[in-house]
Amino acid sequence: MILKIENVTHQFKNFSALKNVNCELSPGIYGLLGPNGAGKSTLMRILVDVILPTKGRLFYNNKEITTLGARYREIVGYLPQEFHGYSNFTAEEFLKYVANLKGLDQKNAQSRVQQLLELVGLAEVKRKKIKGFSGGMKRRVGIAQALLNDPEILILDEPTSGLDPSERIRLRGILTKLSKNKIIILSTHIVSDIEYVADEVLLLKDGELIEKAPPSKLLNNLLDQVWEMQIREEELAKYSTSYAISNIHQQGSKIEIRIISQEKPHRSAEKVNPRMEDIYVYYFGSRESNAICQ
Amino acid sequence: MLRWEIKKLTRNVWNIPIITSVICLWGIMLYFSTQARFWYILGSLALGFIILFISTRLFILDEEEKVSEVILTTKYGRWNLLFQRVMTAGIYTTGIVILFLFIQVIGVLLFNRNEIDVHELLTVHFLKGCLLVWGGSVLFSVFTACLCTIFKSHGVTAILSGILFGMTYILRGNLLQQYSFEWFLEKGLFSYLIRGENGLFEPQWVVIIVWYVFLMVSMITITIIIQFRRHEI
Q1: CA–CA distance from A196 to each of A49, A192, A224, A226, A280 (Å)?
Q2: Chain B contact for A268, CB < 8 A?
Q3: B229 in reach of chain A (CB within 8 A)
Q4: How close A286 comes to chain B (CA, Å)?
């Protein structure tokens, strides 16, 4: 099972959302990482055939997905970034409706819906209307609908947004269990989620795929480059202009900062093990920490 | 699939208020013994309102509830669903027309104070009118469905269709020159049919039929082209 992305470019008027993206995906979990506007959602929408790329093609097992049409959609599960569900439907009714559109027969749909409601922890509220659901509950309905047809390609755009930590852990467990014979692509801003579950990370910056590697390899690249040190508050501006800062923590009168640098930034600096957040800052910078420092 | 689409329409919050207010208005009209004139303005307006605010919403609900992308990635979420939804809008409209006509017949039979010739009303006016009301309503629901699909906005659809639908009530047909622009505005935008006017039995019926065939074929073709360009079918 191979999903091949070949020279995919997508243009929105004068803005290039994706620029010549090339890669091959085989079964496993892929984490899509990039800042807002990097083209993650656009790539996902192209992968599920919701939009056509301006240039380039997508192949599933050497067959172009636009030619496969409904046969391709039959093996795809998708959770978009924005998803609410029909407010006047109950969770059970909504899932049955989507199951119907996905071509599941009534008997299969019934058992699959119950099974998924249990899996995402909504079995007790299955007869409650979606309009009464919290953001996290709606997200779980979204995850359940994506899994209805037991898809070979599962694409989840920010599946963990709005989920509490225990729900995130549960989702990570579900994805790991499912990943054996599936291509799972997920994007999230919670980089630790990717660190825990992804077999490979795709880094997107300004519409370009800048890296595709396992998290361990990316972390190894940063070995001996991550430092922690304590500084005075007035020194923060100086360090923020010279180094990439991945964390700032106030500790009494001093500030503890986490720096990414090839050289030791200060004699008091201590080398620490890199984390996925450091990778993010290394590749994409940290607007947040710079803003705090200014 | 059809069952689920009908369920979506029947769950619309506007259903009960509109049907209740129609029945209440009818009650008031009956009190004043003007039953026969009800359909001409208020009944047809209520039907237009139901089509615009309930049946048409079926075509924008996916956008409003942020599920359109989910639907588009399902096996039957494109051509098949569009066809099913047009069918649902037609079935729902037929149901509402039958309900309204039933209420009117019951009203005439129960409360007529011999001011109306019941036999003439039911056989001559009503039977002829029924066909036009039903045909006009179904065509109007398909027309608004197409507009809603094109603009992806219920507000724009309601305003545009509302203006077009209201033409019959504004323009005076007997003062208009035959086949003029205003004549088409008055007779060619559904409300003329929904009011139960006997347009199809008038001498110019051929022109009216040709116009409606042209209007509907154009609208459906434009909708399909736009849907195709958006990669939605």
Answers
A1: 28, 6, 22, 20, 15
A2: no
A3: no
A4: 31
